[in-house]
């Protein structure tokens, strides 16, 4: 396994979204119980795991799993003196049948799975009777901008999906439109009390620096520079599209919005 993810980028993203992550966890109702144990799927190096769960004294055990060998190695070193934490190099499909958790957290994980509904069926069996699953996912259909006379946004999405995403190991199964599908997945998997929350970001009232930060975090990651298995033609085309849209973000009259979807559900 290789270090497929930019850990610094993941840390910045986790810190940026922390306030709403905390809100959703509190809205789940699970924190009223004592002696809670957590499974954080796709925990990376443990940075975001600690941000979300460390502050609660009634959470007594936190397990993080990831398929990134370098991230798990870093997490184990960081938390080697904290008995509350346990990090394992493990695929989501390899969890032991007898393991049970009060909180199962999937932050930006479900969209990368080849069969998300099958995974959810299995995870439901890993929940305690009081347990809750928390799922955070993107959906590019909830992103739009105006004016965009060249339809740059959708050209970027289309090029990324057809020429870049499918040629990278970590994104070859990724569904960038999964957000609206998760309710059906949860319902079909027999979860109960399904709730949906939206975290909305836009350019209204933002400084130029803030607009550029939003562009970088929600769009610019589709750049093909430094990616393997991508043609020079595609790299050049994507750079041109991204540069043009980035220029649009600097204009006062330009509007862009995006939403991140959070689901919570019980067994």
How would you describe what is shown here?
- By secondary structure, the protein is α/β, with parallel strands linked by helices.
- It is 36% helix and 24% strand.
- The protein contains 9 helices and 8 strands.
- The chain has helices at residues 7-16, 18-27, 47-53, 69-78, 116-124, 152-164, 182-188, 208-218, 232-249, and strands at residues 36-41, 59-66, 85-89, 101-107, 127-137, 144-146, 192-202, 255-266.
- Strands 1, 2, 3, 4, 5, 6, 7 and 8 form an 8-stranded mixed β-sheet that branches.
- Helix 4 (69-78) links the parallel strand 2 and strand 3 (85-89).
Q: Which tags fit this structure?
A:
267 residues, alpha/beta, eight-stranded mixed beta sheet
Q: What layout of secondary structure does this protein have?
A:
Layout: H1 7-16, H2 18-27, E1 36-41, H3 47-53, E2 59-66, H4 69-78, E3 85-89, E4 101-107, H5 116-124, E5 127-137, E6 144-146, H6 152-164, H7 182-188, E7 192-202, H8 208-218, H9 232-249, E8 255-266
Parallel strand pairs: 1-2, 1-4, 2-3, 4-5
Antiparallel strand pairs: 5-8, 6-8, 7-8
Helix pairs in contact: 5-7, 6-9
């Amino acid at each position: 396994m290789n270090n497929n993810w930019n850990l610094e980028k993941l840390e910045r993203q986790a810190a940026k979204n922390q306030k709403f992550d905390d809100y959703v966890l509190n809205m789940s109702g699970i924190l009223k119980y004592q002696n809670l144990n957590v499974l954080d799927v796709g925990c990376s190096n443990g940075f975001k795991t600690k941000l979300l769960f460390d502050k609660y004294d009634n959470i007594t055990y936190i397990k993080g799993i990831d398929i990134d060998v370098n991230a798990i190695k870093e997490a184990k070193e960081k938390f080697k003196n904290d008995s509350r934490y346990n990090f394992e190099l493990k695929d989501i499909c390899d969890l032991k049948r007898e393991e049970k958790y009060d909180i199962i957290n999937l932050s930006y994980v479900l969209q990368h799975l080849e069969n998300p509904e099958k995974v959810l069926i299995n995870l439901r069996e890993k929940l305690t009777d009081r347990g809750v699953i928390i799922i955070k996912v993107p959906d590019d259909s909830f992103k739009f901008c105006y004016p965009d006379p060249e339809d740059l946004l959708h050209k970027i999405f289309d090029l990324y999906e057809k020429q870049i995403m499918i040629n990278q190991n970590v994104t070859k199964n990724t569904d960038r439109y999964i957000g609206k599908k998760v309710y059906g997945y949860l319902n079909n998997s027999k979860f109960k009390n399904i709730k949906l929350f939206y975290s909305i970001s836009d350019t209204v009232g933002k400084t130029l620096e803030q607009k550029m930060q939003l562009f970088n975090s929600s769009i610019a990651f589709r750049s093909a520079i430094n990616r393997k298995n991508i043609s020079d033609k595609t790299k050049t085309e994507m750079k041109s599209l991204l540069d043009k849209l980035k220029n649009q973000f600097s204009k006062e009259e330009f509007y862009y919005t995006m939403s991140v979807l959070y689901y919570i559900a019980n067994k």
